[in-house]
Amino acid sequence: MVALRFTSLFLLCTSFTALATNLPYKVTAPKGTSTLPSLTEWTKNFLTAVVAAPSEDAANAGFDAYLADNVTISYNDMVVARADYVAMRVAHGFPPTTVTVNQTIEVPTVANSSQAGIVSVFFTAAIGSQVAIASMDLVIKQDTSLRTGPGCDHRRIYGLTQVQA
């Protein structure tokens, strides 16, 4: 796990593009904007990386790339440890999954900035033959413990509240 975490952080800090090629999504910045995707796009990438992950390794890499080590998680009004939240995802297996984001609300901490903020997202996930409906509120901040460098995305989820039927 330590090696996987180190590898994830290394990939993230050497090049955001390099990380994107190892996860099941592609990140491209719109022309004329910063190199970081918006908080909403970043959240969609998080959902794809962990909910639609094709394997345990991919899901773990997604969690390591997006969740802060000291994240506070509430799942259906129960406080859940980070490791338990990750284990819940792994326990469901990895059937083919499609995530559809139905609605989002983005509130940046600083106006017109993608550096930090709160994103609320309502989504459905077609997991094999089942459909899960969920909402998630994410508190996204800069993780100052990460190494700096060109192309590094230091955003991490510090608060996650999920309600799922």
UniProtKB/TrEMBL annotation:
Signal peptide location: 1-20
Keyword Signal on entry: yes
Keyword terms: Signal
Domain of life (superkingdom): Eukaryota
Protein name: SnoaL-like domain-containing protein
